[in-house]
């Protein structure tokens, strides 16, 4: 059946103030997690309708947004959430910074597992804390937690664990057993588990790898859990700056809110209305997006495994980001190699605490995916 949405259309973005396209305009960009597709038409219509009102003053979350969030949590995650358990945010990176300042004492530790989304490795600087990293391990071709190493590394000064689920950049969707074991680990060591689930609506086969929302874990664990969510990656509205936290424990929620101070910007009215429209009307678009991304994922996986000797790619279960191990190429910095030789801008694995790797963004028309892969293969050859 033909798609109702044209994901094949090439949309010129150069010269539009796009971080992805205009940071290095001489390079072909396959880096930052930003898709080259238009947002769902209902989102654009809601934005235009709100702009047509003509008054764009200070905003607060309106009831339509609240209803959409509660419906989303119920329909998507099977969870009944109260309005007062939701904290509205201008983005998830600033939320990580707030959490770093809110939980634990100065000089304490924030634990995470690598490779990982770069801000996870930097927010400790905002709170005079230390970053404690434990590498994921590969077991039968599948990346998993190294439970023994985590138990060895944790100390009484460790107050926060930062989780990316689905995992960026590995593309893993962690199982219920893994999430429950991690939550129990955190509770046992009096650590707050911060579950960043920004990619949870980008799971490519949820029948095979269902998402486990941390906000749905048993009530006795919730005093140690903050769940972070956003429509931004899924509906390609990251520039609108809206996210939210689900914090079910009153004491933990107050502690988190107190760290905000005066450091967070106001959330604009347009951000609230785009989020509402995405959650309320975006599901048909999301389903077709997932089908398209699944085909792109299959193309990238097969291409790397057959046309790029010296490169290794894991099975990708979620996101539109491919993690490619290039260490066997013998290049000191593969990202720099592809930049110099193929004029490609890829995400450098060193920023994820994994030198020798690159991250390739396939959230773009299929023809663009092939162009980028061919350029990589040509310079490898």
What does this structure look like?
Helix 2 packs antiparallel against helix 8 (269-281), helix 3 (63-77) runs parallel beside helix 8 (269-281) and helix 9 runs parallel beside helix 11 (366-380). This protein has 11 helices and 13 strands. Strand 5 and strand 6 form a beta hairpin. With 381 residues, it is of the alpha/beta class. The mean pLDDT is 97. It folds into 2 domains: 19-41 and 283-380, Alpha-Beta Complex (Aspartate Aminotransferase, domain 1), CATH 3.90.1150.10; 56-281, Type I PLP-dependent aspartate aminotransferase-like (Major domain) (Aspartate Aminotransferase, domain 2). The longest helix is centred in the last third of the chain and has 25 residues, at 283-307. The strands form 3 sheets. The chain has a 7-stranded mixed sheet, sandwiched between helices. It has helices at residues 19-22, 41-53, 63-77, 92-102, 147-153, 176-188, 250-258, 269-281, 283-307, 334-342, 366-380, and strands at residues 28-30, 86-89, 109-114, 130-135, 137-139, 142-144, 158-164, 192-196, 225-229, 243-246, 321-325, 344-348, 357-361.
């Amino acid at each position: 059946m033909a798609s109702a949405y044209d994901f094949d259309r090439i949309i010129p973005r150069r010269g539009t103030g796009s971080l992805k396209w205009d940071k290095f305009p001489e390079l072909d960009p396959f880096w930052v997690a930003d898709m080259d597709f238009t947002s769902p038409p209902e989102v654009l219509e809601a934005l235009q309708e709100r702009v047509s009102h003509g008054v764009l003053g200070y905003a607060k979350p309106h009831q339509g947004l609240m209803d959409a969030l509660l419906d989303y949590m119920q329909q998507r995650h099977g969870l009944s959430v109260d309005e007062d358990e939701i904290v509205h945010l201008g983005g998830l990176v600033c939320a990580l910074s707030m959490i770093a300042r809110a939980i634990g004492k100065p000089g304490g530790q924030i634990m995470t597992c690598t490779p990982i989304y770069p801000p996870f490795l930097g927010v400790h600087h905002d709170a005079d804390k230390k970053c404690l990293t434990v590498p994921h391990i590969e077991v039968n071709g599948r990346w998993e937690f190294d439970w023994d190493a985590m138990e060895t590394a944790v100390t009484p000064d460790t107050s926060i664990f930062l989780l990316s689920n689905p995992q960026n950049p590995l593309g893993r969707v962690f199982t219920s057993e893994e999430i429950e074991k991690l939550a129990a680990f955190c509770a046992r060591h009096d650590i707050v588990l911060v579950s960043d689930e920004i990619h949870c609506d980008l799971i490519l086969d949820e029948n095979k790898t269902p998402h486990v929302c941390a906000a749905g874990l048993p009530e006795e664990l919730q005093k140690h859990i903050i769940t972070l969510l956003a429509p931004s990656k899924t509906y390609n509205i990251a520039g609108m700056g809206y996210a939210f936290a689900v914090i079910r424990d009153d004491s933990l929620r107050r502690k988190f809110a107190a760290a905000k101070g005066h450091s967070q910007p106001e959330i604009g009215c347009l951000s609230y209305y785009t989020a509402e429209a995405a959650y309320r009307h975006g599901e048909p678009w999301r389903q077709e997006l997932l089908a398209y991304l699944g085909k792109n994922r299959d193309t990238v996986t097969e291409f790397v495994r057959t046309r790029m000797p010296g490169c290794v790619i894991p099975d990708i279960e979620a996101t539109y980001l491919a993690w490619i191990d290039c260490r066997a190429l013998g290049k000191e910095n593969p990202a720099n190699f592809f930049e110099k030789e193929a004029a490609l801008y890829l995400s450098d694995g060193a920023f994820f605490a994994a030198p020798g790797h690159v991250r390739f963004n396939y959230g773009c028309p299929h023809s663009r995916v092939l162009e980028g892969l061919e350029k990589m293969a040509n310079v490898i050859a």
